[in-house]
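Cross-check.
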Amino acid sequence: MALMPNELRTLDRHARGVGRRIGHSMRVFVPSNEEYLALTVLHDGVEWSLVGPSRVDNDLVAHDIDATLWLLSVGACRIESTDDGPRIA
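Predicted model, tokenized:
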């Protein structure tokens, strides 16, 4: 079952809000073809994928993103810089 546009907007607002609270610029990224979805973070002027990209019609990616945002918001994990870009630790 594909995610509805309002569900994507809600998930993106949540990502942006969590990002602001933890000091990162994050968003839910949907490319122009609207087939894929990813949780991204802006790091050193480059947008990096933290979760995904996965097909939008896969509801699990939304759950993965939501769970990751919850873990970040409660401090159970954090975004750290690595040589290969930011990662969740």
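DSSP finds two helices and five strands in the chain. The longest strand covers residues 46-55. Passed to J.P. for a second look.
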